[in-house]
Predict the 3D structure of the following.
Amino acid sequence: MVNVKRGVWTTEEDTKKLAFGSKHGSGNWTSVPRKTRLKRCGKSCRLRWSNCLRTDLKHDNFTTQEEDLIIKLHAAIGSRWSIIAQQLPGRTDNDVKIYWNTKLKKKLSQMGIDPVTHKPFSKLIADYGNIGGCQKPSTRIGSINKDFKSAMMLKSEEPHQTMPQGFTNDQSLETTRNNFLFNRAHGDNLSMLSRTDFENEMISGCALGEDRLSKTSSPSTPSSCSTSAFSWNDFLLLEDAFTPLDYQQKDTLVSKENVVTIQSWNNKEVKSQHASGSTDFQFSSSSHTSFIEAMLDQENEMFLSFPHLMEEPSNFS
DNA sequence: AAGCTAGACAACCGCGTTCCG
DNA sequence: TCGGAACGCGGTTGTCTAGCT
């Protein structure tokens, strides 16, 4: 459309749009410009309505509880603002996104927490240091694979070290988050995960944080979701999510069946079903305890799939 | 008072998904 | 089943404004 107006909306345009919106509600946005005689595209009308003109929007500052929830949800599902906004009545995805980018990211950084991974910078540096500390790349891959496989074998043998059922605690949240990060790191389509039981469980876990998270956390796992005075330390996501003790403690808390579907790096769809007591958890990318491990696990899979590509060259001359 | 800068936020853009004929 | 239109989402850009020099 050539005659489409752009830029900031005038009060006159807002009035027209408001009048139309209050009469017809939202929907069929392409017809809105024609019916309201606005020289805007339908897309622009929808945006203006959903971000600014809707009567149920809050325009005051974010509360501490809202901040708390945003950070928890971001840690769990990443920058899926529309989903996060759904948990915050009166807030739009744009509101949440901007608030995160302008305030919360800085706040976390000042606390020494990486806003992307929600881990302390020191931990990230240590992780990278561990990788860089190995001498020969090919040897490193081999030894890491070996160690990591051993670790995974041990985990799979442990009756309580399968994927926790019910997503009722911080450890499961962490595990799931790592899978998100893993998929994100490899450019996978996260929308595969949208609206699954798994995601809804996570969201409700955050939204009901004080009930679902804190009650089920291990003693070493802080959780302050929705409490009146939260601690920023609570937004550090903890390592060692798979300690046997944790799982033994958790085992009594879960009873619900969950089906998790993920799209792994090589587009193999993997389903994992968790009935109470089930032990057949089998993400192809394993149960990553950290982002770094997820990366290494992917490396491992690539090695298994394409061994000839990963072989050490015979000489480097 | 004028110019500059950073922060806040409204709006746009591109892309993926869904809907419908 | 397919293709185009519509919609929704997340990232980015543009504009305004307050504060500082």
Q: What stands out?
A: Residues 82 and 93 of chain A are 5 Å apart (CA to CA). Residues 7-8, 28-30, 42-43, 46, 50, 79-82, 93-94, 97, 101, 191 of chain A lie near DNA strand C (CB under 10 Å from a C1'). The two ends of chain A are 61 Å apart (CA to CA).
